[in-house]
């Protein structure tokens, strides 16, 4: 049996129109507090991370009308956007996707939030789920 390239679930990302309202909902309803907040201009989003055990709920809102999250909200509305999986080696995991005929959005790993290295796998090759590979 081979060892899994996926080591943990890093986060579940939820696209929202009103980040402050979403933060208030999770805080007031579940007692979840923001542990990290960042604007990622390269992706056109602002994120708030809520810690859940060793993982996060990532609330995402667009900062530009042309960001992928803005387009997602326009076509699909608010809700589950993607799942982020922790990997020990983002480049190796991305290469495995390519080696197995999967479609990728990123050709190579790139900087992500929190100082991570990330790459996205296209949902058309992953049974309808946008996947983010996250190396801490």
Please render the helix and strand layout as text.
Layout: E1 6-15, H1 19-30, E2 34-40, E3 45-52, E4 55-62, H2 68-76, E5 79-87, H3 90-99, E6 110-111, E7 117-121, E8 131-135
Structure described in brief:
The protein has 136 residues and is an alpha+beta fold.
Features:
2,3-Dihydroxybiphenyl 1,2-Dioxygenase, domain 1, 136 residues, single chain, alpha+beta, 8-stranded mixed beta sheet
Large-scale geometry = globular
CATH superfamily: 2,3-Dihydroxybiphenyl 1,2-Dioxygenase, domain 1
Secondary-structure element pattern, one letter each: EHEEEHEHEEE
**Secondary-structure class:** alpha+beta
Reading off the top of the CATH hierarchy, the class is best stated as: Alpha Beta
Give helix % range.
Answer: 10-25%
CATH topology, by name, is 2,3-Dihydroxybiphenyl 1,2-Dioxygenase, domain 1
Kindly, what is the distance between the CA atoms of the first and last residues, rounded to a whole number of angstroms?
25 Å
Number of strands: 8
Instruction: Give the mean pLDDT.
Output: 97
**Adjacency order of strands in the biggest sheet:** 2-3-4-1-5-8-7-6
Number of domains: 1
The low-pLDDT segments are: none
Q: What share of residues are in beta strands?
A: 35-45%
Q: Biggest β-sheet: count, sense, barrel?
A: 8 strands, mixed
CATH architecture: Roll
Number of helices: 3
Radius of gyration: 15 Å
């Amino acid at each position: 049996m081979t060892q899994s390239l996926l080591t943990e679930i890093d986060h579940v990302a939820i696209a929202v129109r009103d980040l402050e309202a979403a933060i208030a909902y999770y805080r007031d309803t579940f007692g979840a507090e923001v542990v990290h907040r960042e604007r990622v201009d390269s992706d056109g989003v602002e994120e708030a991370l809520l810690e859940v055990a060793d993982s996060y709920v990532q609330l995402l809102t667009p900062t530009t009308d042309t960001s992928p999250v803005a387009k997602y909200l326009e076509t699909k509305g608010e809700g589950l956007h993607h799942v982020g999986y922790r990997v020990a080696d983002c480049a190796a995991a991305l290469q495995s996707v390519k080696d197995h005929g999967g479609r990728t959005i990123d050709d190579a790993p790139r900087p992500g939030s929190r100082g991570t290295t990330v790459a996205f796998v296209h949902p058309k090759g992953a049974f309808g789920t946008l996947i983010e590979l996250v190396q801490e």
